[in-house]
Amino acid sequence: HQIMIIRVAFFSLLMGLTGLQGCLNVDPPCTQKLPANLLAYIDTNRLSSDGTTIDNWLVANNLTAEKDQTGLRYTITNPGTGKSPCLETSITFTYTGKFLSTGKVFDSSATPVQYPLNNLIIGWQIGILKLKEGGSAVFYIPSELAYGSAGNNVIPPNSILIFELTLVKVL
Predict the structure, then answer these.
(1) Tens digit of pLDDT for each residue in 12-52?
(2) Stated pTM of the model
């Protein structure tokens, strides 16, 4: 749990420092890829195992998905036509989150919610960068790109998650 907090805190600190650029009258950066050091703490054995589980689940359910180099599987149902997000931007989105193992919905929001993209779980950051405003996708997220071995109060440790997400607006 502490490693996940450190990962997010470190990345948020890096992204927060970019706010100083406004004082210099230069455009803020638009990062479209996660820094490699953010992925350095991922358990690659767990990531590989989760990837196999996701691939088997997709085959068993007659579904196909693209595979990102990070291990995220995704299906873009609508790429969108608006602005592209950056890790430094805030976004509004709707979503439904399910457990891959049971299909049980553990969270959803039909009303758009707003967060800075770099404050979301790593799997979302990777996947949302593949969309434009108005786009939607299904993300099959290995536990290491979600809540890892720590889990949270709703999600057990090492849970593989499915999210159906629509990127409503890039702010």
Answers:
(1) 544 454 444 444 555 667 888 887 777 888 899 999 999 99
(2) 0.83
Ramachandran sector of residue 147 (left: φ over 0; alpha: ψ -120 to 50; beta: rest): alpha
Q: Name residue, tokens 């004082």.
A: 23
* Rg of the chain on CA atoms, in Å: 16
Q: What is the pLDDT of residues 64-79, one digit of tens each?
A: 999 999 999 999 999 9
The span from the CA of 93 to the CA of 167, in Å, is 5
Contact present, 81 and 67 (Cβ < 8 Å): no
